[in-house]
Design brief:
- By secondary structure, the chain is an alpha+beta fold.
- It has 6 helices and 16 strands.
- α2 packs across α3 and α5 crosses α6.
- The structure holds 4'-deoxy-4'-aminopyridoxal-5'-phosphate.
């Protein structure tokens, strides 16, 4: 459940009951999908609750807004403070946090003069669950970067994610893996993709993906552990003799993959670099200290 009659949300500088929130039906985001958003997690730790990589997420929100010509009137620190207050008001320690910047009244095809900022928070399990996930290559492609700004987190882009997820579930799989317009592996509907081969991790470079904050964190942890990571383009066929693979994302965290189109990997998940990274990631998010450069 995302909210109850006791939940508070942040809307345009105020904390109000979720059930009292009002927005106009004539906002451009609702009709044409020009809104930008974030997905953030907070974790309880020995020193209290900490919002994981809060600065990085709100910076990305600000950048997404700039790229989509949406007005963004807040400082990063203000938003971090507001989010901590929101967690407190909702008595949340471990939480998923959803900031959304959406437009005001505007039915034209030009960016809006007015924008609104919503932040909600709720308790949310890991998005892909705790079991290894079965994956299928999607018939939907990642959006063409010449038609949109793929590295901005724009609400409208997620129609592709919804179609791809629905198709995968209809076919009996847990999750989709989308290719880019050139047939290279890109990412999942809401997470980034890595595979492992002979002790090296491979992940697609920026260009057709949303370069995730979890992806960057996992790459940093891998570096500290001496696990090489290469940002390279690759095709689905190159995954046939992979040792393992996994997804990374704020909602999913590090999620091991069982199979791709029913083809299993050469290694048992527990024997892979991905597994080690998933364990280290779990420890890291609970440390409550993400400011230092040394992760481990
Ligand atoms: N790709 C897409 C399309 C996403 O929606 C997300 C989730 N924000 C990610 C990748 C992973 O990004 P992050 O690790 O910053 O959550």
């Amino acid at each position: 459940m995302y909210f109850s009659n006791k939940s508070y949300v942040f809307l345009n500088g105020e904390f109000i009951k979720a059930s009292d929130a009002r927005i106009t039906l004539f906002n451009q985001t609702l009709h044409y999908g020009n809104g930008v958003f974030e997905g953030i997690r907070a974790y309880g730790s020995p020193s209290g609750t900490t919002i994981f990589k809060a600065r990085e997420h709100y910076k990305r929100l600000k950048e997404s807004a700039r790229k989509m010509h949406l007005k963004f009137d807040y400082s990063i620190s203000e938003l971090i403070d507001a989010t901590y207050q929101l967690l407190k008001k909702n008595h949340l320690a471990d939480a998923y946090i959803r900031p959304l910047l959406f437009s005001g009244v505007n039915m034209r095809l030009l960016p809006s003069e007015e924008s609104n900022l919503f932040i909600g928070a709720w308790k949310w399990e890991r998005y892909l669950g705790d079991k290894l996930v079965s994956v299928t290559i999607s018939s939907y492609e990642r959006p063409n970067p010449h038609s949109c700004i793929v590295d901005a987190k724009v609400t409208g882009h997620y129609t592709t994610s919804i179609l791809a997820t629905y198709e995968a579930r209809k076919k009996g799989f847990d999750e989709a893996l989308l290719l880019d317009m050139h047939g290279h592996v890109a990412e999942a509907p809401g997470s980034n993709f890595f595979y492992e081969k002979n002790g090296v991790l491979y992940t697609p470079p920026p260009g057709h993906i949303l370069p995730g904050i979890t992806r960057a964190t996992v790459m940093e942890i891998a570096k500290e552990l001496g696990i090489p990571v290469k940002e390279e383009l690759f095709t689905p066929e190159q995954l046939h003799d992979a040792d393992s693979a996994f997804f990374t994302g704020t909602a999913a965290e590090v999620a091991g993959i069982k199979s791709i189109d029913n083809r299993r990997f050469r290694k048992k998940w527990e024997d892979t670099a991905g597994y080690i990274l998933s364990q280290k990631y779990k420890e890291y998010i609970r440390t409550g200290d993400y400011s230092h450069s040394g992760i481990i």
